[in-house]
Amino acid sequence: MIHYRNAVIKTDSSVYEPSEDSFLLADAALSEIKDSERLLEVGCGSGIVAAVIKANTNAKIAGIDINPDAAKCTKENGIDAIRGDLLGCIKGKFDMIIFNPPYLPTSEEERTGGWLNTALDGGCDGRRIIDRFLEEAGRCLDVKGKLLLLVSSLSGIEEVKSKMEALGYTIEIKSQERFMFETLAVIVATKT
Ligand SMILES: C[S@@+](CC[C@H](N)C(=O)[O-])C[C@H]1O[C@@H](n2cnc3c(N)ncnc32)[C@H](O)[C@@H]1O
Fold first, then answer.
1. Does ligand 1 come within 6 angstroms of the Cβ of 49?
2. How many separate domains does the chain show?
């Protein structure tokens, strides 16, 4: 069991174990949510970020994850969740979409397969899933909707910011923290 900011969740051995990145994103989301916004968490994993939001705000949050064990774990932790690949099967619009993506630069040889690899593997430059997500996300955001995206220096924070700007978002670094091997940041990108 993991306890964090009034939330208590169970985890699963085939689902990403909540880590510094999960907690940084959860804290950034708490300080960004103002009222009863409609939120979607992509790549919800165990459901830790969504559970923290549910325990501390009036926001309505649901999750989606490509790993069926993650969608199940999130549901067992009290959050509506479905299995799906990024936003492909999402029909509605949201005030905020949050994502702690797989971002580790991973070559073909380093790829191990399995759901824990899927949770980490960002392709050769670390941005394979991030880039796909950014290209799809605008369609699912309401007017003035926001993306909260966790990014790492390992996959290039400046490159992600540039892509967001090119897609027409206004961006702000919400929080940033230095860890042993990387700097993690949460970018808030507002649809203009
Ligand atoms: C770094 S983990 C984050 C998990 C959780 N949100 C957290 O912060 O602890 C990334 C998550 O994204 C999911 N994921 C990877 N590729 C995905 C895709 N194409 N569509 C949906 N989810 C995906 C993984 O299964 C994993 O649960």
1. yes
2. 1
Rg (CA), the chain: 15
d(Cα 187, Cα 96) in Å, to the nearest integer?
12
Q: What is the pLDDT of residues 85-131, one digit of tens each?
A: 999 999 999 999 999 999 999 999 999 999 999 999 999 999 999 99
pLDDT in tens, 130-164: 999 999 999 999 999 999 999 999 999 999 999 99
- Which residues sit opposite 3 in a β-bridge? 8
Q: Is the CB of 62 under 6 A from ligand 1?
A: no
Per the structure, the complete domain to which residue 164 belongs is given by 2-191
C-beta 129 within 6 A of ligand 1: yes
CA dist 151 and 21 (Å) reads 9
Q: Is the CB of 99 under 6 A from ligand 1?
A: no
- Domain with 58 in it: what CATH number? 3.40.50.150
The per-residue pLDDT of the chain, averaged, comes to 97
